[in-house]
Amino acid sequence: MTTTQTPVEHLDVLIVGAGISGIGAGRYLTTELPQKSFAILEARGASGGTWDLFRYPGIRSDSDLSTFGYEFKPWRDRQSIADAPKILAYLRETATENGLDERIRYHHRVLAVAWSSEDARWTVDVERTDTGERLQLTAGWVFCAGGYYRYDEGFTPVFEGRDRFRGEIVHPQSWPEDLDLAGKRVVVVGSGATAVTIVPAVAGTAASVTMLQRTPTYVLPVPREDKVAALLRKWFGDERGYALTRRKNIAQQRAIWSFCQKHPKAARRVIRWVNTKQLPEGFDVDTHFNPPYDPWDQRLCAVPNGDLFRAIREGKADVVTDRIVTFDETGIRLASGRHLDADVIVTATGLNVQAFGGVAITVDGAPVTLSETVSYKGMMLSGVPNLAYAIGYTNSSWTLKVGLLCEHFVRLLRHMDERGLDTARPVLADPDMPTRPFLDFAAGYIQRAVGRLPRQGDRMPWLTSMDYHSDVKLLRADSVVDPELRLTRAADRVTAAAVPA
């Protein structure tokens, strides 16, 4: 009896993740390299990534959509700091317009990728999350677009007495659809972007809302609508007006970040002055809105139209800066001796960083340890062929960098196709080059994971740039050819291997 084995599907490019990065990468492949076969594998049952996953009240962008949106697709809504449903609709519209809906395979989680230099391809192990079925496919390239955090659980520190609390404890990453906060006493533990979003969003419904923070965060009010952008669209039309707004906002973001880096004391004074103007007279600004670190050592939190400050002014929300001693049956006991009564505790305590979606990577049978690799141009890893990834900016809009990375990626693929090359492997010219953490960012969620992430070097192309204009030069203007990126073809490798030493 003979059996026939089903041929393993082969793709030119496999994109992992159908969020903002994966949809962007798919669009660039579709328009720039239409002959390439590719698919987008998405572990969940819906596209949109972060903007579909998170369902907590008030969820919105913390960057303006003129820079957070794609360069190739104008953002037409009046909201500049936009709510999640509008961002999700924008992403899905982008996918549909570019024929990506049929390319996305839902409930497909990538478990492992194994590179074979002999075959110049990846073997990819996939699990169907809806059925548990395992399958394999192969790909010439893998493009990791799954973001930087675990989708199945957020970060929650150990809280003494948690099991004693008789109310409900909720993490924003898994917000229950049926959670009713009407008339409830709510304590939101945290001070980052999620906390400052939830507090004003529920302040009008809950009986009381308290933002409990151990350490303050820099918070700035920003207009929800960009009046200059509206005028530019009116005068120049959607596409040209969007392009001009994008340039304006890139320059504005760079100026603010540069000012904070060069003049941290002055920046701190300016932010404190703005906060004081927004808060009630006599409010203890120095306790609750005066972080011990400098501006932009961690990301600034933007609050559209100052909604957090307005909730505090109107007496609908309160801020407490203290240390948690224990949860008890009715709330939280603090180091100061104060007790916060609560019916619902929201642990807005951050994310669990997970590089490359936790996918196991091997090259010619050897496991890849991410912390032993060095980032090449912020998009590939030393010693790892034909694997690209999308990581955006921490000090500006995420998508600004992702767009440049996608451009560079398709240019590299085109260059290789034109010359019959099949393998691109970043190789350090100096293996002893000094390295430092991949992300120079003091945020807790990064610091908890920094030892498990790739490293960066002390020079280009091994630096992970956080400057848009530098990346425009490196990723858009410069050649894809680089002395430390080895481009080869299978036929040459076979010939070289056959020649006696």
TrEMBL record:
Cited Pfam families: FMO-like (PF00743), NAD_binding_8 (PF13450)
The entry's keywords: FAD, Flavoprotein, Monooxygenase, Oxidoreductase
UniProt xrefs under Gene3D superfamilies: FAD/NAD(P)-binding domain
Phosphoprotein is among the record's keywords: no
Span of the signal peptide: none
Co-factor requirement: FAD
Xref: SUPFAM superfamilies: FAD/NAD(P)-binding domain
Any one GO MF annotation of this record: monooxygenase activity
Enzyme Commission no: 1.14.13.-
Source species, domain of life: Bacteria
InterPro entries the UniProt entry points to: FAD-binding_MO, FAD/NAD-bd_sf, Flavin_mOase-like
Membership in a protein family: Belongs to the FAD-binding monooxygenase family.
PANTHER family tied to this protein: MONOOXYGENASE, PUTATIVE (AFU_ORTHOLOGUE AFUA_8G02570)-RELATED (PTHR43872:SF1)
Protein name: Flavin-containing monooxygenase
